[in-house]
Amino acid sequence: MHTRRAILFVLIGLFLYLCLYAGSEALVYHYAERNRFFMIRTAPLRQYDYVIVGASHAMPFDFEDMNRRLEAASGTHLINLSIEGGGVLPARLVVDYFLAAHSTRNVLYFLDSFAFQSAQWNEARLADASVFARAPFDPALVATLWRYPWARQNLPDYVSGFSKINNPGRFAPDVSEAEAKNFHTVYRPIAYLDRQRIQYLYPARPDPATVQRYRDAFTDFARFLRERGIRLIVVRPPIPARIAGLIPGEAAWGAEIAELARGLDIVFRDFSGAVAKETLYYNSDHLNRDGVLEFAGAQLVPLLVQYRE
Amino acid sequence: MLFGSLTFLGFFGIVAALHYSVPARWRWALLLIVSLYFYSTFRAEYVLLLGYAAAVAYGAGWKLAAWRGTRAGRVLLAGAVVAELAALGMFKYFDFLAGSLEALSRPLAGIALPRLGLVLPVGLSFYTFSCVSYLMDVHRGRIEAERHAGRLALYVAFFPKLLAGPIERAGPFLAQLAAPARFDADRVAAGAQLMLWGLFKKVVIADRLAAFADAGFAAPAFASPVTLVLAVYCYAFQIYCDFSGYSDIAIGAARVLGFDLMENFRRPYLARSAHEFWSRRWHISLMAWFRDYLYIPLGGSRVSVPRHYLNVLAVFLVSGLWHGANWTFVVWGGLNGLYQIIHAVLGGARGRLARLLRLPAWFTAAASVLLTFHLVAFAWIFFRAASLRDAVTVITRIYAALPRLGVLARNYNWTGEFVLAVGLVAFLIGVEVLDERIGVRAFLARRPVAVQWGACYGLLAALLVLGVWGLNRFVYMQF
Q1: I need a surface site. Which of A11, A198, A251, B108 has the fewest CB within 10 A?
Q2: CB B451 within 8 Å of CB B444
Q3: Minimum distance, in Å, between the CA of residue A132 and any CA atom of chain B
Q4: Are B460 and A13 inside 8 Å of each other by CB?
Q5: Average pLDDT estimate for B282-286
Q6: CATH code matching the domain that covers A2-306, chosen among 3.30.10.20, 3.40.50.920, 3.40.50.1110, 3.40.50.620
Q7: Taking the CA of residue B415 as centre, how many other CA atoms within 13 Å lie in the half-sphere pointing to its CB?
Q8: In this predicted model, what pLDDT tens digit does every residue of A105-117 receive, in sequence order?
Q9: Is the pLDDT of residue A244 over 80?
Q10: CA-wise closest residue to A118 among A220, A37, A205, A29
Q11: Domains of chain A: which residue ranges?
Q12: Least CB–CB distance from B461: residue in A9, A12, A16
């Protein structure tokens, strides 16, 4: 009698859980908007010209109507899969997942030096359940997460939908705070905030072994794309000279990445000094709307056109 | 591995299944092993400290029983209690005493004392008190010394109560160990329901309120007066839901495993006086410990009136110091002691005043509950503040803003999250009032199964949808 009641209790509980899961999944489809996994899951099945990856410096090119404008100006199909705080490993994971159901001619990688310097922007991001909290359920993503050891620990959470059900921002559009509040603003430099930003991005002095690990991961990523016939284009995103001067070893890193790109036969463009005016940034190092439009017109669109075919 | 984590729930499920799978005579061994494993997940070296506390209790317990009523027995008891408290003193109070002595000597010559810089092992205050109560009870002849070292070790280390109590007495616990309970589905279900309710209080209410309390107490000098008022109210409910939630999970987990632990909370914010709050409703196991092993030995109330008040004050000051090596806790304890003395001094004056003013009974009851709550909440300010200066800042800034608090509140940025928190606290109060009047279990037992199950599913859904799972800390674990 007790056993039967217990089984019935569990079965009803499972049914109710599935209802919660379905409701949360529906909310994801309603509000996820810019969530990269949602974008991949719902992207039209067609040949893309460019997949844009990188960290937050690549995100403004997808804010508001920027992606559509870039597509119109360059005559290309673009999808921006950049992830906040995403280093080499997260970039590889989203491209890997994207290629499970889609194809592209090029991957345009906005590469920052911090991506090579800390596990915080690599393994830790893959291990962060919140990164996948609004990813719609997709067996292809399950398979992708399984292939990445650090992301694998999120599989129980992702498959059970726990973070999705528990998401406190379930009724808010998944749009970054920068897009919602700051994109139209102009930054007034404050030395303290600049230093704080640099400390955040570069939390520890990188040891050579760590840098080498992410160089190897990057090299592996380049080979992975080449094997699939996809061209990798690496660009250094624009950054004010004042900020670049605060980043330890930034100039040397620029030369190193150029050397690495040459060795791997990768297209490389250094746009780090392309937008000098501070009024074109919404904070210490992110382009605002005017900055994106100016940079796109002068540098990005010509690049996209050049490698369109 | 904390109670509010999914890891613990998985661990507990496995332990419960194993517990009823092994023969009854070996269950103590299984529980001891898993308890030591549980404790080692915090820091493996802590297990040695636990072993030390249990070894002192076991070794001294034997002799105390043999030397009961003799001078040698009293000397041994004093030695064993000092040995138990020595670890607590070293880890918890050494640096505090050194700092206080340095501060006291500063106006004179000034001395520099060394610091140990030790991290307080989790649960040390609780299991030390368990060991001391065992020794005292053996000495007084209330219980016999436990001959089975493993069972005594389990009494000290039993994982549901290890981190933050209840501070269970040895007598009832060891008796349950001697006669292991058979699997009882109703009992297991009741334990699981209590765990569920405890988790709800902890993860859904306490951890949600923590953000509002932290916003005020983190930097009181910079917080707005409304933020500070909210912080004080939110903290009062946060600490209740946090600690009583922990206790419910502990008692529920023990019940699933076939053990009854003592009640630790009895709807404290429905108390009609500070005396009732402390004597019958809040952290019952600790206050009973202080009553039996400190207050009564000091003479209790069977002494002159001034000495009685002094005893009360001493108990509350020690209780404050037990919570933490900081002057904020001493002031908190002193304040609560003062409430007790004022309550005793006023005696029946409150009742006479109510009769004189012909106030209806429901009104005096509600006013008493509200007044008691505010007195307790006021004392919590000292408990929560990082320093006495911070506590005074909170009080003075709220006091200074009282005349314009209404205007400030109207212009305050009220969030949906706060409205949700208020709704949850209202729900909690509703449940507590119902429990006080007729008992929630009795109320639900009279309802159809669908309603009973619906209540469980509702709590589970709230845990999933509204739970704040990231925090994973218990306020009382730091003591």
Answers
A1: B108
A2: yes
A3: 16
A4: yes
A5: 95
A6: 3.40.50.1110
A7: 9
A8: 999 999 998 888 8
A9: yes
A10: A205
A11: 2-306
A12: A16
B224: confidence class by pLDDT, cuts 50, 70, 90: very high
- pLDDT over 80 at B463, yes or no: yes
* pLDDT bracket for residue A1 (50, 70, 90): low
* Helix B6-19 vs helix B225-256: crossing angle, to nearest 10: 20
Name the CA radius of gyration of chain B, rounded: 23
Question: Is residue B334 over pLDDT 80?
Answer: yes
> In chain A, which residues have their Cβ closer than 8 Å to the Cβ of B464?
17, 20, 162, 165-166
| B374 is annotated as an active-site residue | no
Residues 6+ apart with CB under 8 A from B246: B3, B163, B164, B198, B202, B474, B476
SS3 state at B389: helix
Scanning A32-138, the segments in alpha helix (DSSP H) are 36-42, 66-74, 88-98, 123-127
Q: Cβ contacts (< 8 Å) between B467 and chain A: which residues? A: 166
Task: Check whether B245 has a pLDDT greater than 80.
Answer: yes
Nearest CA in chain A to B466: A166
% pLDDT > 90, chain B: 65
Which of B185, B457, B465 minimises the CB distance to A165?
A: B465
Single-letter amino acid code for the residue at A115: A
Phi-psi region of B308 (alpha: psi -120 to 50; beta: other; left: phi over 0): alpha
pTM of the complete model: 0.86
Q: What is the DSSP letter of B121?
A: P
Q: What backbone phi and psi angles, to 5 degrees, belong to B111?
A: -125, 155
Percent of chain A residues topping a pLDDT of 90: 61
Q: From the CB of residue A204, how many other CB atoms can be counted at a distance below 10 Å?
A: 11
Pick from B292, B185, B206: which is nearest to B249 by CA?
Answer: B206
Tell me the average pLDDT across B219-225: 91
Cα of A136 to nearest chain B Cα, Å: 17
Residues of A in contact with B456 (CB under 8 A): 9
**Scanning every residue of chain A, which has its alpha carbon at the shortest distance from the alpha carbon of B460?**
A13
List residues in chain B touching A: CB distance below 8 A: 185, 417, 453, 456-457, 460-461, 464-465, 467-469
Sheet holding A78-80, edge to edge: A78-80, A47-54, A103-110, A231-236, A267-270
Q: Which DSSP category does A137 fall into?
A: P
**Eight-state DSSP code of residue A97:** H
Size of interface A-B (CB pairs under 8 A): 24
Within 10 angstroms of residue A217's Cβ, the number of other Cβ atoms is 18
Output the furthest CA–CA distance in chain B (Å, rounded): 75
The torsion angles phi and psi of A266, rounded to 5 degrees, stand at: -110, 145
Nearest residue on chain A to B187, alpha-carbon basis: A2
What is the C-alpha separation between B186 and B263, in angstroms, rounded? Answer: 19
pLDDT at B472: 65
CB atoms near residue B400 (< 10 Å): 10
Contacts with B457 from chain A: Cβ below 8 Å: 12-13, 16
**Identity of the residue in A6, A12, A165 whose CB atom sits nearest the CB atom of B464:** A165
To the nearest whole number, what is the mean pLDDT of chain A?
91
H helix and E strand count, chain B: 23, 0
Residue partners of B18: CB distance under 8 A and separation at least 6? B30, B34
Radius of gyration of chain A (CA): 21
- Cα B397 to chain centroid distance, Å, stands at 29
Q: Give me the interface pTM, i.e. the ipTM.
A: 0.80
Residues of B in contact with A12 (CB under 8 A): 453, 457
Chain A interface mutation, best of B186, B465, B468, B469, highest count of A Cβ atoms under 10 Å? B465
Q: Quick check: A166 and B469 CB within 8 A?
A: yes
Catalytic residue among B19, B139, B283, B323: B323
Residue of B nearest to A166 (CA): B465
- Asked if the Cβ–Cβ distance from B457 to A165 is below 8 Å, we say no
